[in-house]
Design a protein that fits this description.
Blueprint lengths: L2 H33 L3 H31 L8
């Protein structure tokens, strides 16, 4: 078995089996990206944004409480 056969056989197998699947999957992913978000994803994103805003408000409230009760709490490690 020469070096040409050792390289050509895996290369041929790659080109027959792996490369076509790779190309198909690549363009399928590109098409999905170009379509944008689905309605379910938009709803989920909106819900996450609402939850993040709610959490931010809670953090601000907790910080105000801590500032009132222990003004130097931010300096403690």
């Amino acid at each position: 078995m020469g070096i040409e056969e050792a390289i050509s056989i895996p290369l041929i197998l790659f080109m027959i089996f792996v490369a076509p699947i790779w190309v198909i999957m690549h363009y399928r992913a590109r098409r999905q990206i170009s379509q944008g978000l689905s309605e379910e994803e938009k709803t989920s994103l909106h819900n996450l944004a609402d939850k993040a805003e709610s959490m931010a408000e809670r953090i601000r409230t907790l910080e105000q409480i801590l500032d009132a009760e222990s003004p130097d709490w931010r300096n403690k490690v």
